[in-house]
Amino acid sequence: MLSFKYYKNVNSLAKLIDGNLVSKQIKENLIVEVFKYKQLYNKTPVLAILQVGDRQDSNVYIRMKLKSAEEVGINAQLMKLPKNITEAQLLSNINKLNNDSDIHGIILQLPIDSSNSIDTDHVLAQISIDKDVDGLHPFNNGQLSHGVTKDVFLPCTPNGCIHLIKSTGCDIEGKRAVVIGRSRIVGGPMAQLLIWNNATVTVCHSRTRDIPDIVRQADILVAALGKPEFVKGDWIKPGAIVIDCGINPIPDDTKKSGYRLVGDVDIEEVAQVASWITPVPGGVGPMTVCMLLKNTIDGAFRYAQKYYDKDNTLDESLIDISGDSIPIHKLNIEETIANGGDCEIKSAQ
């Protein structure tokens, strides 16, 4: 279980689930896995990031992904494509990456910033299932819906949320969980992951009646609807674990930018009732990037064993991971927090 601090002061019941700290711990393990991969295959895991257009928020998120990839030893390559690109041209670029044996993971930065009409779902479905490290391909989503969670790519934000819940010491099995939001990127797969972790799950959405009454039953609440401070304190079951996937700008004249970021949960109220809560920023966001890196490394191993040397058996006893053999990149948690420590969270429907 992770060390913790209370939200604002000890008079608050809720302890903060520090996504920066949890992701740092996972990254330290990923550094070792990357080193093993390099020793075995004499290759570096490569992540290709496709960006259409030049949205400023996307630029910020991509810089975070590039920086985190460098920290663990992954070679992340950004392919910037013009805003006027056609769907056919975008698919052609994806096809080239699919067929490049040196590329182990492919992500398409969303939303697609194009002046032309592009079917996002169709484009995502053209990414090779062997390289779909965002976990958004219909095949990987379908596997999850059938309870297959090994040797497939799990969606990064939901999987990060599961890690955050478990970091509190909570045993998910038998708990009553509520997910607010049903998007294919966060809410839907979040519910599936909770189900396959043996929780009893209710999904609320824009047509759900009496949402507060449903939320009051939740031992675990995941808010992923994209509405600032939607969840109020009197909705929360005392002692519940609250995971806030929202990241919403609201006006704030005291900030140089003129706005501040808040989640889908009113943290001032909810922290007085919940036992654990994720902050915004610095909660779910760092875990989304961390799970992307984990998927890339896992995918590199699976891809290598499938295509590079089908007859090779990995003997980890031959890999030297002792002493100074691993080139450790010092992870600066203070710097991460100073820079906001958060990244892209897709809002749900």
Please tell me about this protein's structure.
Helices cover 36% and strands 14% of the residues. With 349 residues, the protein is an alpha/beta fold. Helix 6 (156-167) packs across helix 7 and helix 6 (156-167) packs across helix 10. The longest helix is centred in the last third of the chain and has 25 residues, at 284-308. The radius of gyration is 20 Å and the shape is globular. The two termini are 32 Å apart.
List keywords for this structure.
alpha/beta, Rossmann fold, about 350 residues, six-stranded parallel beta sheet, three-stranded parallel beta sheet
What sort of overall outline do the alpha carbons produce when their principal axes are compared?
A: globular
Secondary-structure arrangement, i.e. CATH architecture of the domain at 147-285: 3-Layer(aba) Sandwich
CATH fold descriptor of the domain at 147-285: Rossmann fold
Largest sheet, spatial ordering of strands: 1-11-8-7-5-6
Question: For this entry, what is the oligomeric state of its chains?
Answer: single chain
Distance between the termini: 32 Å
Helix tally?
A: 11
Task: Give the overall average pLDDT.
Answer: 88
CATH superfamily of the domain at 147-285: NAD(P)-binding Rossmann-like Domain
